[in-house]
Amino acid sequence: MDTSDIISLMVLTPERTVCQKMVSKVSLPGTLGRFMVLKNHAPLISSLGEGRIIYVSDSVEGNIDIAGGFVEIADNKVIVCAEL
Questions:
Q1: DSSP assignment of the chain, as one string?
Q2: What's the rounded Cα separation, in Å, for the pair 78 and 12?
Q3: What gap in Å lies between CA 13 and CA 19, rounded to an integer?
Q4: For 11-24, how does the pLDDT look when each residue is reduced to its tens digit (9 = 90+)?
């Protein structure tokens, strides 16, 4: 992975940390529609609906199904608080 395009992804639940990875992009199920986060995304706090978080790490796609939650995006960090 090109280190110039890396962002930090952390997915948390009330019980545990589900995912902590360096990724090149993340697609999230916002309550108003799906949106993608790339490096240098503008700061944002958003609610998330039921759906799938899709991310790419080392050219391999991964995903996590969530029932809803919130996301904070700032300084190339994506922090998701979700219910699974």
A1: --GGG-EEEEEE-SS-EEEEEEESEEEEEETTEEEEE-TTPPPEEEEE-SEEEEEEETTEEEEEEESEEEEEEETTEEEEEEE-
A2: 11
A3: 10
A4: 999 999 999 999 99
The answer to whether 34 and 28 have CB atoms below 8 angstroms apart is yes
pLDDT per position as a tens digit, 21-73: 999 999 999 999 999 999 999 999 999 999 999 999 999 999 999 999 999 99
**Gap between the Cα atoms of 14 and 1, Å rounded:** 31
Quote the CA–CA distance of 53 and 28 in Å, as a whole number.
5
Compute the distance between CA of residue 7 and CA of residue 21 in angstroms, rounded to an integer. 8
Side-chain-side CA neighbours of residue 79 (13 Å): 6
